[in-house]
Design goal:
This protein is of the alpha+beta class. About 20% of the residues lie in helices and about 45% in strands. It has one domain: Immunoglobulin-like, CATH 2.60.40.680. It contains two helices and 13 strands; from the N terminus they run αβββββββββββββα. Strands 2, 4, 6, 7, 8, 10, 11 and 13 form an eight-stranded mixed beta sheet that branches. Strands 5-9-3-1-12 form a five-stranded mixed beta sheet, with no helix packed on it. The longest helix has 23 residues. It is elongated, with a radius of gyration of 24 Å. The termini are far apart. About 25% of the residues are buried.
Length: about 180
């Protein structure tokens, strides 16, 4: 009886994992970062869709490309990079065309985000309306892992260089005075 309950518990708790994976969790403001949508299926899948929510005062989506998730079986795919709408990238979707499914982990899509120059904050990025489906079009159970990116201010290298030279001159002057 306990074995049967454990089997049902593990079966019920299984879910396809969808994870946002940034290329870096700390980004200098004004620079770009890529974010992969990594999918680890717990069953065979053939399609996926999502919306991406973000703070447009901190980040802007500049590019969305298809990953290798559905291409790994060598089948033809269809991919829509979505529409950018203020603080949401809407209707990103893709699927295997014809017959075919995958059950091996892979990247569904890669997004390039540019950060706003001069901004310093934590930018939360999260998926909404995520649906992963089987070849028959049935939704499979999913679990989503969102992320955040810390934006740091851009260092003004001219000022930094001038400050460094000034400190070095002061240290040399102090060292010269101590030997005299």
């Amino acid at each position: 009886m306990i074995t049967i309950l454990l089997i049902f518990t593990f079966t019920a708790s299984a879910a396809t994992q969808v994870t946002l994976q940034p290329s870096s969790e700390v980004v200098e403001s004004g620079s770009s970062v890529t974010v992969d949508i990594f999918v680890d299926p717990d069953t065979e899948i053939a399609g996926m869709q999502f919306d991406l929510k973000f703070d447009s005062s901190l980040l802007q989506v500049t590019n969305v490309t298809e990953g290798d998730l559905f291409k790994q079986s060598g089948t033809e795919t269809f991919f829509n990079p979505g529409q950018n709408d203020t603080e949401t990238l809407k209707n990103v979707y893709g699927c295997i065309q014809g017959i075919g499914e995958v059950s091996t982990s892979g990247i569904f899509a890669t997004m390039t985000l540019s950060s706003t120059p001069g901004k310093r904050d934590m930018a939360q990025i999260y998926l909404q309306n995520v649906t992963v489906s089987s070849q028959e079009g049935n939704a499979v159970q999913t679990s989503v892992n969102n992320t955040s990116i810390i934006l740091t201010k851009t260092r003004n290298y001219d000022n930094f260089q001038n400050e460094l030279i000034q400190r070095l001159v002061e240290e040399l002057t102090l060292n010269r005075q101590s030997y005299a």
